[in-house]
């Protein structure tokens, strides 16, 4: 099922219960959320879109692989109820040999990924080392069924006139006890949205943005200067807001924000504001 939701400024949001966007990237197997369109042009590249859940089991990340869509209040023009099945994990495969199954390898990979995100001063070295090893050893990223699955539901309420999207967590599916962290990703394409700015006066471009840094300003935005479009997110009590951008060859191409919060949080909602700047 594919649903397109027009908003102001000749923009629209699209969501599809199936894998049709970004399939040329390794993350194409991950179920996408709301994809931003300017006219007929999709602006997502490799990004997962707005309002996509990821669950953490300690260092293991669980990604959504399936999605059920139903109309909000009986009408798709008002919004969408989305029930994600989180059932995928990231794996490494060797070209010509298939998936590598080695617990030590994946433990090391998860620690490396956490270090790249949390230690800005060594990000460049670690990322370069990772890319070099992948190239020399013929390693590629894949997303495959995990030994764990669960459901998470969200509602997307659309105010077409103002370009505002309210995204709200529906806790009809309780989190399993082993879940340690919930992340809600809000991304679009890295080549399109390569400028960051926030209400504290911080601005950054391209690699200056970083791949996963905490936002302390009350509100922050990514800007597409060519299309003159921005999307903005606010701080939400009980969560930590992060910004990031990664553009690595044919593997990664996303810019956006992630909210991180504990599964014990009783209620969570936020608003994304999309603007045409001219």
Number of domains: 1
The number of helical elements comes to 2
Question: What fraction of residues sit in β-strands?
Answer: over 45%
How far the N terminus sits from the C terminus, by CA atoms, comes to 33 Å
Order of helices and strands: EEEEEEEEHHEEEEEEEEEEE
CATH architecture: Distorted Sandwich
Average pLDDT metric: 90
| CATH fold title | Beta-galactosidase, Chain A, domain 5
SS-based structural class?
A: mainly beta
Percentage of residues assigned to helices: 10-25%
Number of strands: 19
Spans with pLDDT under 50 lasting ≥5 residues? none
What is the secondary structure topology, with strand pairs?
Elements: E1 2-7, E2 11-16, E3 35-38, E4 41-42, E5 50-57, E6 60-72, E7 75-94, E8 98-99, H1 103-118, H2 123-137, E9 139-159, E10 164-170, E11 181-189, E12 195-198, E13 203-205, E14 213-214, E15 219-224, E16 229-234, E17 240-248, E18 252-261, E19 269-276
Antiparallel strand pairs: 1-2, 2-3, 3-4, 5-6, 5-11, 6-7, 7-8, 7-9, 9-10, 10-19, 11-18, 12-13, 12-15, 14-17, 15-16, 16-19, 17-18
Helix pairs in contact: 1-2
